[in-house]
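QA checklist item 7 of 12: single-chain prediction sanity check.
[x] sequence parsed
[x] length recorded as 476
[x] structure emitted
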Amino acid sequence: MRPQLLLLLLFVILCTPLQAEVRLHSLFGNHMVLQQRSSAMLRGTAEPGRQVVVRCSWESNDRIVKTAEDGSWHIALDTPEASFEPQWIEVREENTIRLDDILIGEVWLCSGQSNMEMPMRGFPSQPVEGAAAEIAASLKYKGLRLFTVGRCCADTPQSGCRGVWSQATPRQVANFSAVAYLFGRRLTETLDVPVGLIVSSYGGSRIESWMDAETIAKFDPKDYIAHADKPYRDPCKLYNGMIEPLTGYAVRGVVWLQGESNRRNAHVYAPMLRELMALWRRKQAQPELPFIVCQIAPCPYHGEGKLGGARLIEAQIKATDADSHAWMVGTSDIGDEHLGHYPKKDKVAERVFYSALVNVYGIEGLPASGPTVSRVDYIEGGAIVHFDHAERGLNPLNRPITGFELAGADGIYHPATARVGTARSTVEVRSAEVPAPCALRYAFADWHRIDLYNHAGLPAFPYHSDSADCDAAQPK
């Protein structure tokens, strides 16, 4: 045989992939956490029509699965109760893959835009408060594991993603989502179980980017941007590249922190968020998958001038109020007038943690929500505002509360004075400029900083009585 032909044959052999070699999806690796008492959908690829043998340390028998025509395979592994005892998984075909240091515990998916993405080390000239101490202490949390989904804009749904599971070392924590880490650290400390955090976020992204084509087709194209200025703002592209690949990896719940980029179409954000939650639940085959939604923090949004941020917050509240498996946490007291990426990430994580303990894990006796307006009684020259989640009273007592406004039949709002009422779950609001009020709003502005809390120190939610019928309202 001619030397040239031999060289060509050798080149073809070396460049031909070994199709028989079994491979695992990138979500499965050393140091990962699998959701306890769930069906862990292990998956990967090999040569079509071959048998893949799977064995895991918590089961006594091998599992066997035959690869499909496209070479893909998956197999459901029932996981035991949470434990810090390391487990292992072996996957065999012609080659063997062994995964070590696997923990069984609680897994949470954390997603959104830059305030979720913001790492513990902060952004340039935008720090995270208390970050150095938290990063230094991270070595204590041996059961806390981290996975960041690599950025990916895709035109079609992807099967794989970039990312590697890691332990919580200072180097890894410094570059990991601050909100996610601070939430997970509290969770593993309190529940005393391993916690796995999967962060799939993209700064500046819009909610449309995180939905699939079938879901976005439910909305009128005039209500969103079909081709945005950046690929990651286009509909479906982040879902295709950064959420679809996670399908089947069982999680306990989702933490969602997104909305700043949807200020200009806030009028459709509530139905979009409801559809996003329904989509992710359907894809995960978890119809009651919990969502904890973080209010976007107040910010001036210079040049906006249309209350886009305020209306976005209102939409977040509407969406979570209409969903029995979704809850919202407030941030109206921690925004920064000069920074869109507010530094008090620990406060957000703390409130997410409280909500998870109460609403997801069923732990009683803890605060889970800030005060929310339940009804408004209009009186001559003012209003009595009644609040839920204020059973032990509102604070502060005996001093003015800022942020309330009243309007009459002309629809013009005027600043009002306000104090906690004689019934301590109420606020009495008055304005000399509005003798016959019929509409009220509270902290309904892009930039605001509230000073009204419940007894647990959780901030009140903004409110806007947009449904008030001023023509029919009569002073009492």
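[x] summary fact logged: The first strand starts at residue 23 and ends at 24.
[ ] second reviewer sign-off
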